[in-house]
Structures are given as structure tokens and as C-alpha cells.
């Protein structure tokens, strides 16, 4: 079979008039044509339909920035730190569904991207990273700001490449964009040596395409589909587990109609929040370590589990021996390597989620009668509701802050978070009804993700409200991004659930380390409202429950970045909780029960 | 609240679906999904011949903790492609994972497990030169070749499968082996059967394809 990578460059060179006309038809803004490798990089971004970029300048990437100078139609958001650029691009990718693009220079610029790329890799978020590199002649000589970027990022990217030729660098960027976008999405990276960016070329890149040898599966094997539907028809206690792949595969509508047609209860994973509306009677909420009691009981007691677009992460499954122990598992995923990786798939359905759900729907003759199962699920919802103490009690409860923020903002508001207790409260006490409104760091658990993600989300959806929940510890890791929100005048609301501690670590110390609070309690944190004002943002502070609604409303209505420093009950912990590796059916609802489970 | 009052039955009280199923959902008799003895598998991967691919593949094995016995790589008749022969010793589910994780990498064009393969390894052995006649006799016995002979040392090469190479090394041991180097396996599928081809990109093989392939190789 022919290989595109080798055939495209001559084609591109032979057809300049054709590609010129098509480019000028599609793109009203006049481009001066490609003169250098850096021009080809920018032309490739335009050919991919990229509108926004997040990056930080630096020596080796300067030629690419210089090429951007003439392209006003590409909106470049100058970030304060490359990690923030990667997170912003990641959030942009989640919200738009297409790769977010980030730029950084060589050496420290590239290594600062690493956390963000690892995060995108774990969550299959589409991100294209472009990094400067020292000139080719210096590569390998330990030159100034030289790092083996493709080597460092190889395990945390879906694909990366080192550009060697100005004539093909544009296509390399296009291929990387397409690979980030197609199949199971993920981060890709192209390393751009300065000499390649500066070198002369007139080679216009083609529109982005994946290599011929890359062919993600579409339809599941019909034999497996029939076997799975036969099992489903005979089931009495089925559950659908909707993962992030449902959203990434644009299969939410399909999954909703499928679940409603056969009246199958739906639990979601954390990345799957929003795939199924939580106000639907069939919704059982989020499952896992801090999932709802009823979602975990549904998983623990189901006899058939249809997992869609999930990789059965350990924070979801707990101990694999006790995960859905009575269930036959049908697993729908576009990545064959996810089949039986963590949880054995009795029915491996490899393919595109939307298409496979069609296949299953077509193959089902009659759905099972689930009246009794619905009764059971309903009983669990009533027995183990999400609860917290009433808000008028002193001190302030974080759950109440999250619920009130949900109440004072529009339905389609996008939520971003950092990582820690605040993230779990944002999962549990905000009601998610639409896909791409939940933007968080799931697999990698990157503290500090929330603020730069809010920037990326707001740039992706300028008309949509963006609320960022952060913890005091988490926010301090990336707070420099606030300068970007101010400079770009982004209307985002940052709500700091401030307990003056690394709360989740402290919760584990209480539960599993005999309450020995080593390096988890700060005892002092900055006044985030004052700090926000110093950045040029608007600062608010909440100490009392009675102020929550008015202050959150004022912050939400403020036209620009607002930071609300909410001083919450420092003793409040996240429940329900299944200890690491535990049995999902045996969750703790308070500190005392957690000690019993240890 | 005591442990006994927590919701749900304890794990030991719950039913578990019996046994294992095939990739097509059909129960396999007599196979317990928990116990999988490691076995040796020879994998052939056709990859793009470009910088970084070897590091990408070897990095995959180390970070996912797959036990690799040997890995060889070399050019093919197509300049743009290279073939890797990888020998792993792993349980059956892990071998499935190795194949799928390998196939998932973008520069990997196709992956096959060779259940019936012609496979050869080469060893170069440098032994003390005190008994040249006896060394020659052993070399002839194993159809080897003498690459270098001096008054103090003799260097020979032997080609064969693993058992043959092991036996030859044992035989040379009596003369005092100074150094040796083994290449690891290179292998192709036996007979008409293709090894791993460009024309069947299994960048993302479905379970059913993987299954079919295993049946075909049986």
C-alpha cells in the first residue's frame, strides 16, 4: 500500500495553483504564501481550521511566532507559563471537540508542557503541541535550552515527530493535528528545529490527513453484537456505564435515546459527566471512589454492564475482584487495547461509540422487563442521597457553595476544576446535563488544572459562562494564569473552596495515616481576594453561608475575571468514599465509617 | 457504624460469572480467567523505518512492564519499512495486550504473532585458542564458521534456533569462552502464510480480527 507521507510532498509541489485557489476560496484573509518552514507550519494550522493558539514565546520558537505576526486571523493567547498553555489547549479541545493548539520554545518551554501533555494523554483530550528546538546542527550537543523533547514526550503523546525538512514540515504539523483529532483522541507534538523553521520553502501543506496506515475501527463485529444483545435481552439488572468516550465520540444523543428506549439505568464515570443528563429519572449519577452510593450499588449489583467509552480506571472500579462481580461486561471502545485491559470484556465491541450503539439497537428484538430493577435502584437513591449539613450552620459548607453557584448561573455553564476535595464537591453537587460542560483533570489528577482550563474554555466558548472551582492548594500551583485572564479580559468566575490545606491528602491522613497531618496543612494561605485585586481581577470573600448567594451572583455578573475566596469548613471531608482498591458496594458516608473500612 | 452495617453483600458472598469467554462472547470450557501461565510468543511487527521507532517500541515494553526476551530490528525490501522480531514471555492476556499496544503506536503498521515460524538466532563466540582442532570440530558439527583465528583466540559464528545455540555455547565452554554476543531471534511465518504485511494494516485490529488470526495460525 502507498504511504502518504512519501507521496504528498511532490504532489503538493506540483499543484501550487490548485491549492492556492482552494485556499483563497476557503480563507478570505489574504496570506502571503509560504516562504519559510515557519510559514508552512502556520499554513498547516490554517488548513486545519485552527482559530486560537495558547503559547509562550522563546528563542527556538521565535521563527514560528514571527510567521504568526502576519496572521491576525489566528488568535494567539499569550500564557504566563507553558503548563498553563497545555491545560488551556486541553480544555479548548474538550469544549470544542477539536485539538487545542499550544506552542512553547525548546528546553524548559517544552518540559513545562509535559504535565499538560501527560494530562491530555490520560484523558484522551485532543491537543497539538508545537515546540521549538535548537538548530539541527546543534541537536545532540547539549546546546543552550536543548532537551530531547520527542524523547521526553514519547510516552505521553499519541504520536510525536521531529521535523527535519522545511518542505514537509507543514504536512507533519497537519498529520499531527489529524492524529490528535481522529480515532481515540490524544495529544500529539511536532518538534521544530529553528533552522527548519527559518529555511526557505514554498511547499504549501495539504489539508490535514492521518497516515494511510492509520485506520481506527468503526463498526463492531456483528457476531459479538448479536451475542451481547442476546445477553442483554435476558438480563434483569443491566446498567450502562457512560465514560468520556461517549462525549468524545459525539454519541451522547445516541446513548440517551438507547438508554431511554430500553429504560436502562445510567451511571457515568467522572469524564463522562454530562454525557447523560443527571436530572433524567434513569440517571444514577457518577460512580467510583467518590461516586454516589446509588451509582456504586448499581454497579456492584448489576448482572449486565454496558461500558461505553470508558477505560475502567482504578478510581472507578476499586478492587477489580469486587467490581460488578455478578455482571457480564459488554465493552464499547474505539481502542482495541482497552478491551480486557483492566476489566475482562465478555463482549468486546470495538468501534465508534455512536455506530456500535446503532448496531446494538438494531440487533435487540425486545428489551428486558426491568420493573423490579427500577424499584431497587429507586430505593438506593432514596436510601443514600447526597447529603451535607444545612448551610445555615456555621462554618460554611463547600457543598452549599457549589450548589448555589449552579443555581445562580445558566444551565449550559461550563465548569472547570483543579484536583482535590473541591473537584469532588464540584462533581457531586453540581448537576450536569450537557456534554462538554465539565472540564477537569481526571486520569492524571493535575492540581492547578482549573484556572488555565477556564481560560481555554472561555476562549473556546466566549458566549458561555465559565465557573472554575479551585482549592487553595491547587490554585496556588498555576495562579500566574490569572494575569492572562486579566490581560485578555476573560469573563470567568473562579471560586476558591479555601480550607487552608491540601484537603484530600489530609482526608487520607485522617482515614489511613492515623491523623498524622504531614505537609498537608498550610496554616496560612494568601488572601485570594486581595491577591486577585493585585492581578487586576475582581476579588470577593465569603465567610458566612448567608453571603454565598449574593456574592456568587455579584461575581458571576462582574464582566471580567472574578475570584471568590470562600472560606469553608476546614473539617469538611468528601463522602461517599470507597477506599483505594476497595469494594464499590462498601462505601463510607462519614469519617467513622471510613475508619471501619480501612 | 460497624463494618457489618455497611450496604451491600461482602465480596465472598457474591456470585461471579464462571470462566472465560472467547472474543466473540462464547464461554470457553475449563479456562479460569484468573490463572494464566506465562508462555513464550514470537511477534513480528512491520514498522516505519524512521528515527525513534525502536525507542518508541522498547519504551512501550518497559513502561508497561512487559517481559521482553529479545528484540531484533532490520531493513526489509522496502527502504521505508523495517521489521522487528520480538520475543516475549507473558501470560495470554498480557500477550494480547502487547500485540494491541504495539499495533496502537502510529509508526507500527502491522503486528502478528508467529505461532509457526522459521526462526534463527546468530551467536558470535570468542574462545581461547589453545585447542584449534577441537574448536574447529565443534564449529563444523554445528555448521558454524570461523570468523577469526589467532594464536590466543578463535572467534566463530553459529546460527540456529535457541536450543542449538545453547548447545553450541555449552560445547565451547570447555575451551574457555572469553566473550560472546547473541542477536536474538529473527523470524518469518512458515510456508505461504504472510508474516506482517503492509496490505493488511491492523493499526487497530478488532478483537474478531485478532481472533481470526490466532485461529488461522493454529
TrEMBL record, chain A:
<feature type="domain" description="Thiamine pyrophosphate enzyme TPP-binding">
    <location>
        <begin position="418"/>
        <end position="565"/>
    </location>
</feature>
<keyword id="KW-0285">Flavoprotein</keyword>
<dbReference type="GO" id="GO:0000287">
    <property type="term" value="F:magnesium ion binding"/>
</dbReference>
<dbReference type="GO" id="GO:0044272">
    <property type="term" value="P:sulfur compound biosynthetic process"/>
</dbReference>
<comment type="pathway">
    <text>Amino-acid biosynthesis; L-valine biosynthesis; L-valine from pyruvate: step 1/4.</text>
</comment>
<feature type="region of interest" description="Disordered">
    <location>
        <begin position="199"/>
        <end position="218"/>
    </location>
</feature>
<dbReference type="InterPro" id="IPR012846">
    <property type="entry name" value="Acetolactate_synth_lsu"/>
</dbReference>
<dbReference type="InterPro" id="IPR011766">
    <property type="entry name" value="TPP_enzyme_TPP-bd"/>
</dbReference>
<dbReference type="GO" id="GO:0009099">
    <property type="term" value="P:L-valine biosynthetic process"/>
</dbReference>
<dbReference type="InterPro" id="IPR029061">
    <property type="entry name" value="THDP-binding"/>
</dbReference>
<dbReference type="Pfam" id="PF00205">
    <property type="entry name" value="TPP_enzyme_M"/>
</dbReference>
<dbReference type="InterPro" id="IPR039368">
    <property type="entry name" value="AHAS_TPP"/>
</dbReference>
<dbReference type="InterPro" id="IPR012001">
    <property type="entry name" value="Thiamin_PyroP_enz_TPP-bd_dom"/>
</dbReference>
<dbReference type="Pfam" id="PF02776">
    <property type="entry name" value="TPP_enzyme_N"/>
</dbReference>
<dbReference type="GO" id="GO:0030976">
    <property type="term" value="F:thiamine pyrophosphate binding"/>
</dbReference>
<keyword id="KW-0808">Transferase</keyword>
<feature type="compositionally biased region" description="Polar residues">
    <location>
        <begin position="19"/>
        <end position="28"/>
    </location>
</feature>
<keyword id="KW-0100">Branched-chain amino acid biosynthesis</keyword>
<feature type="compositionally biased region" description="Polar residues">
    <location>
        <begin position="199"/>
        <end position="216"/>
    </location>
</feature>
<keyword id="KW-0028">Amino-acid biosynthesis</keyword>
<dbReference type="InterPro" id="IPR000399">
    <property type="entry name" value="TPP-bd_CS"/>
</dbReference>
<dbReference type="GO" id="GO:0050660">
    <property type="term" value="F:flavin adenine dinucleotide binding"/>
</dbReference>
From TrEMBL, chain B:
<dbReference type="Pfam" id="PF10369">
    <property type="entry name" value="ALS_ss_C"/>
</dbReference>
<feature type="compositionally biased region" description="Polar residues">
    <location>
        <begin position="196"/>
        <end position="212"/>
    </location>
</feature>
<dbReference type="InterPro" id="IPR027271">
    <property type="entry name" value="Acetolactate_synth/TF_NikR_C"/>
</dbReference>
<dbReference type="InterPro" id="IPR002912">
    <property type="entry name" value="ACT_dom"/>
</dbReference>
<comment type="pathway">
    <text>Amino-acid biosynthesis; L-valine biosynthesis; L-valine from pyruvate: step 1/4.</text>
</comment>
<dbReference type="GO" id="GO:0009097">
    <property type="term" value="P:isoleucine biosynthetic process"/>
</dbReference>
<comment type="similarity">
    <text>Belongs to the acetolactate synthase small subunit family.</text>
</comment>
<keyword id="KW-0028">Amino-acid biosynthesis</keyword>
<dbReference type="GO" id="GO:0003984">
    <property type="term" value="F:acetolactate synthase activity"/>
</dbReference>
<dbReference type="InterPro" id="IPR039557">
    <property type="entry name" value="AHAS_ACT"/>
</dbReference>
<dbReference type="InterPro" id="IPR019455">
    <property type="entry name" value="Acetolactate_synth_ssu_C"/>
</dbReference>
<keyword id="KW-0100">Branched-chain amino acid biosynthesis</keyword>
<dbReference type="GO" id="GO:1990610">
    <property type="term" value="F:acetolactate synthase regulator activity"/>
</dbReference>
<protein>
    <submittedName>
        <fullName>Acetolactate synthase, small subunit</fullName>
    </submittedName>
</protein>
<dbReference type="Pfam" id="PF22629">
    <property type="entry name" value="ACT_AHAS_ss"/>
</dbReference>
<feature type="region of interest" description="Disordered">
    <location>
        <begin position="193"/>
        <end position="218"/>
    </location>
</feature>
<dbReference type="InterPro" id="IPR054480">
    <property type="entry name" value="AHAS_small-like_ACT"/>
</dbReference>
<feature type="domain" description="ACT">
    <location>
        <begin position="42"/>
        <end position="116"/>
    </location>
</feature>
<dbReference type="GO" id="GO:0005829">
    <property type="term" value="C:cytosol"/>
</dbReference>
<dbReference type="InterPro" id="IPR004789">
    <property type="entry name" value="Acetalactate_synth_ssu"/>
</dbReference>
<dbReference type="GO" id="GO:0009099">
    <property type="term" value="P:L-valine biosynthetic process"/>
</dbReference>
<feature type="region of interest" description="Disordered">
    <location>
        <begin position="1"/>
        <end position="37"/>
    </location>
</feature>
